[in-house]
Structures
1.
Amino acid sequence: MRPPQTQRLLLLSSLVALASAQTTLIVPHTDGSDDVPALTALLSNTSNGPGSYTSEASIIFSANTTYNVWSPLVFPELNDVEVRIEGNLTYPENITLVQEYVGASNYMGAWITFTGGKNVTLSGSRDPTQGWMNGNGQLWWDIAQQTNRPYGWLFGNITGGVIRNLKVYKPIAWNFITTGSTDLLVYNNTILAGSSNASAYPFNTDGFVAQGNNQVYESNYVVNGDDCIRIADQSMNITWRNGYCEGSHGLSVGSLGASGADSMIMNVLFENSIMNHTLYAARFKSWTGGNGIAANITWRNVLFNDVMFPIYVTQNYWDQSLGPKPNASNVNETHISNLLFENFAGSVNDIPGYQDGSCVSDPCWYYVANATGKEVVIFDLYPGSATNVVAQNLFGTTVTGAPIAAMCNTSTISTEVGFVCQDGPYIPTSLGW
Ligand SMILES: *[C@@H]1O[C@H](CO)[C@@H](O)[C@H](O)[C@H]1NC(C)=O
Ligand SMILES: *[C@@H]1O[C@H](CO)[C@@H](O)[C@H](O)[C@H]1NC(C)=O
Ligand SMILES: *[C@@H]1O[C@H](CO)[C@@H](O)[C@H](O)[C@H]1NC(C)=O
Ligand SMILES: *[C@@H]1O[C@H](CO)[C@@H](O)[C@H](O)[C@H]1NC(C)=O
Ligand SMILES: *[C@@H]1O[C@H](CO)[C@@H](O)[C@H](O)[C@H]1NC(C)=O
Ligand SMILES: *[C@@H]1O[C@H](CO)[C@@H](O)[C@H](O)[C@H]1NC(C)=O
Ligand SMILES: *[C@@H]1O[C@H](CO)[C@@H](O)[C@H](O)[C@H]1NC(C)=O
Ligand SMILES: *[C@@H]1O[C@H](CO)[C@@H](O)[C@H](O)[C@H]1NC(C)=O
Ligand SMILES: *[C@@H]1O[C@H](CO)[C@@H](O)[C@H](O)[C@H]1NC(C)=O
Ligand SMILES: *[C@@H]1O[C@H](CO)[C@@H](O)[C@H](O)[C@H]1NC(C)=O
Ligand SMILES: *[C@@H]1O[C@H](CO)[C@@H](O)[C@H](O)[C@H]1NC(C)=O
Ligand SMILES: *[C@@H]1O[C@H](CO)[C@@H](O)[C@H](O)[C@H]1NC(C)=O
């Protein structure tokens, strides 16, 4: 149908209005000084009308430029904005300076913080040599400096967002966290947090911490020294797929119920992932004496190579450095139901004496009493609080060639687990095939 002339004109003028409403901000750069104050001033400048660069805008860090992010950068609420990192960004090399900002009372929680809004895209360069965030983390790792370390990126309180093509090189510690955000797509990001010094471990370099609702993580590549992705408390409908994780502590859910907290995690799917040379592949962790619920969590189609604990569930976590396990018989536990581990294949690292680089105490923080190192699955459950925790279709070998094993205690769960529930050989039951 042909619209009448006036309607076509109206349509045309609204298109023009839309086009002209899109503003572009090229982030200015000055060699040798902090680029954050100038950007912050521009973002808060409303002389061009409220929200000049904070709605319907593109904010561009130019290619072939190395920006000095020498103080924390806080984006105000953004609506319909794309932030494009075409050039490199770099943290200060001065550790004391970073620590002062992180320890300050007005610190917003990350070195780069997004404080809400809708339809926000954060993208990196497609050029592999550009668009890197350089954290200078090696300087911290080399001296085991762990005081007042920053999170990299807090993508907080955003409704409708994308994080894509970002690249992070040697972050100081944790990378991305998405607290309070909903409807996110996070894809094709790269995190390289491997240490160049075998005796300097990249502690707490978690890749992604998902916290919120309806978030999809796809095709991300992570080499690091802590969780590849961790689903944190108060999260629903989170998917991770087609990922690669190396050196990491796995595809994790938790920790839930610390200090009796009432936690909630529901509907989580991890699928099609490669776990290479990691401590865990799939992990669930809640604290002794916790509360709340974790339900409908599936890990499936996981290839694991050289992994110490391919599948590990504990409802009895406590800080082993603070003494013996507390007696939890009179308090609640985080209730877990419908946890499924399906289609896992690979090799268990059972090399005698081998330790993950994060092991700096005796026993290690990940020590499991009575484990042989050959377990492909460990279910450490709490009586009366776990139902339908199932492993199906597991195929494993050990690096030494010994048969694979399992740990499970029939007094802790009354539903079938998919294998003979015992501390001993791994023997799948009819449910487990
Ligand atoms: C704010 O923007 C106006 C218009 O572009 C410009 O004239 C003014 O110098 C800016 N103020 C600051 C503090 O950047
Ligand atoms: C960046 O520099 C390279 C090499 O000098 C050049 O080919 C390229 O066009 C530049 N890119 C931009 C966006 O300026
Ligand atoms: C989202 O924001 C971008 C600009 O970053 C804009 O082009 C696009 O139209 C917006 N989408 C919606 C659905 O408003
Ligand atoms: C590092 O930062 C601290 C704190 O701001 C400052 O006192 C010190 O002079 C800086 N060191 C160097 C080498 O710039
Ligand atoms: C997100 O919203 C909560 C609740 O209003 C607020 O406490 C928190 O500071 C916000 N986070 C960010 C990063 O803005
Ligand atoms: C993924 O990111 C890389 C750069 O890190 C880029 O070369 C590639 O084109 C991106 N892929 C897609 C599908 O966007
Ligand atoms: C950007 O940073 C990466 C990673 O540190 C580096 O390999 C690359 O050479 C840098 N690119 C430029 C243009 O400085
Ligand atoms: C989670 O997904 C379900 C099914 O798609 C939907 O009904 C529910 O509203 C979602 N939860 C949230 C908090 O968006
Ligand atoms: C697996 O990880 C090891 C150790 O980090 C590395 O040397 C190897 O290249 C990785 N394999 C693949 C296929 O990426
Ligand atoms: C778990 O998933 C099942 C099947 O999809 C659904 O019926 C049930 O409501 C879900 N439970 C929770 C707590 O979300
Ligand atoms: C245990 O959980 C029940 C039901 O959720 C709740 O009513 C009770 O307050 C909890 N007890 C403790 C000690 O947290
Ligand atoms: C370890 O095995 C010993 C001997 O079978 C048993 O007494 C002990 O309770 C086990 N410890 C744990 C934590 O399962």
2.
Amino acid sequence: MSGLRFGTAITCIDGRVHRPVILWMRSRYGLDFVDVVSEMGPDKLLADGWPGEIAPVRTKVGFSVKVHASLLIAVSGHHDCAGNPATKEEHLAQIREGVRQARSWGFAADVIGLWVNDQWQIEVIEPPLHMQPAEPSLDGSRSS
Ligand SMILES: [Zn+2]
């Protein structure tokens, strides 16, 4: 699509997380735009949700991949999530499981797992399989 590089962020509906996730994905992976699919507590939804709950998320992400040739799908969870009041350890496990879920969809896009911490900074919980950072040191975020 006119050479623009898109990503897709699966985020909470929480307004505090969209900007940091989008800006981080743009700078770290050289993306021009990031489509957003928002759900309440999406890490829990993807890790523990019923197939009927997960299917609409897959449909929206698939649309983003299809129409924008999205290169990178981010599964994210965040600190102080009202939709998923779990411990950080539970969130991180759900993010890893959510990444496995998103990879099982078989879309032609890489998948990354992100945690938005209590400073509203991005931590990489599950790195993408293939995609290399455009600016690895730009944001100073920690990778695991
Ligand atoms: Zn939330």
